[in-house]
Every structure is written in structure tokens, then in C-alpha cells.
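Methods — Computational structure assignment.
A single polypeptide chain was analysed. Its primary sequence is given first, followed by the predicted tertiary structure written as C-alpha cells.
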Amino acid sequence: MKEYKMRRGEHLDDRMPDLKASIEDYFGTVDGTEAYDGHELYVVEDPDNPVFERIVAGAAEYSGKKNKLAVHFEERPAEDVIAEGHADAAADAVDAKNSFLLEATGRDAKSRRESLKREVEDDAPDY
């Protein structure tokens, strides 16, 4: 499960007031919820794109801090997707993920990557 921060001064609730509807627009019907680290996240058991096997996404709420977007994309092996003739779906899956994350966080892929690098560097032990 990955958690994504919003841009400075922005909040998930403002960017996606109806998170469930946004998840359904991008990935398919939400089938229920699942608890993860005390957060109730939406589950898409049968995503529209054949590359995805299952998607879990929602708001990770922390007291005294801004909410983060928690997401886990379970993807099928590329060989299986290609063997079924869905090679073009892979590009659509990448576009869907990036568009969803950009809309939710206000950060493009490069900005998200740099932010994750900084977090890893900040968490590195001092020797």
C-alpha cells in the first residue's frame, strides 16, 4: 500500500469531494470496503481494465495531519495480459493510474517520485 501526500495547501476532500465516485470513474464499480491500518478503503474487485486484478484505494486519515491517499494496485502478470490480447490495455492502465493520482494529489509522476525519494532519505538511519 502506498500513501500519497497532497500538494502544499491542498486537501484530498477538496480535490476529490466524492472519492468513491472518482474511484468508480477511473477503475470500475466499488464492491465494498476493507480496513487497512485503521482506515476504511474502497475495494474494486473486478476493475474495468484487464491489467488490474484488484484495486484498494481511499483516504488515510490522521489526527492533526492532512489526509493522504492510500492506494494499492494489484496487477496481473504482463504475460497473461498480452496472451489474452490485451496488450493495449497496459498503456490505458498506466494512464488511468497517473490521471487518478494527478487529480487526487495535484502532483504529476515526477513530483510523486521525488517526494518518495525524499521520504526514504529522511527515514535513512544516521551512522
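Note: The mean pLDDT is 88.
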